[in-house]
């Protein structure tokens, strides 16, 4: 199944995406709620609606304004170094254990919303990433069982303010500016992609300019391994988000000059079989002025 959470004139709802159209499944079953949290924790509910999906009213996908797939995630866990060539372009040694960091809820936003370049820096970078949504929670999850804990996969742009990322040994400031982490708009269930979402083309671009182009098969630690590693130290819960790292080609490593995102551009992150996460770049002062109007 392919899902989208979004807004129409009737409010925010969960939609089942069928080609270029979508069915409002929240309208068919209000207990589903207005995001994917219920489905993530109680997988299988949609099967009871399968007979209705073929006859229910539809709306064009492009008429829906994307919202966050999970409105209030409990944890947003990110893998910092998970593609060998990206590690090398950043000047790091290949680690034996993944670099993990957390994002705040204020730092994420839905696909299509502005990605904000902060007033204090012009070094706003892009990072194309696969993100998983936890379904069944748990602790000490084995690699063998890890895929049973995945509700679905989506697209993530881990927008990074590089000079603030490098101010300390911890990456927290550069990875947590408000409205820098775009998610969505589509979520696909595991049956829609190869096992562990491996073997999918992953790309970032601005217009015709290809910034990153790789494949999720190139991840050092795949979905099974990351779930197992993360669940060693924390209890995963339904609706938690895990971002799985970015391939090479990020802006700060471009030669001879870094390639930063600038207001007026739109950056797109695309993952084969999942979709495109597009974000217009705006300056913080302009974004604040628009929000105040």
UniProtKB/TrEMBL annotation:
GO BP field: carboxylic acid metabolic process
Domain Fumarylacetoacetase-like C-terminal: 76-281
Organism whose genome encodes this protein: Aliiroseovarius pelagivivens
Domain of life: Bacteria
EC identifiers of the protein: 4.3.2.3
Keyword terms, alphabetized: Lyase, Metal-binding
Similarity field: Belongs to the FAH family.
InterPro entries: FAH (IPR051121), Fumarylacetoacetase-like_C (IPR011234), Fumarylacetoacetase_C_sf (IPR036663)
One of the record's GO molecular function terms: ureidoglycolate lyase activity
Protein name: Ureidoglycolate lyase
Pfam families, alphabetized: FAA_hydrolase
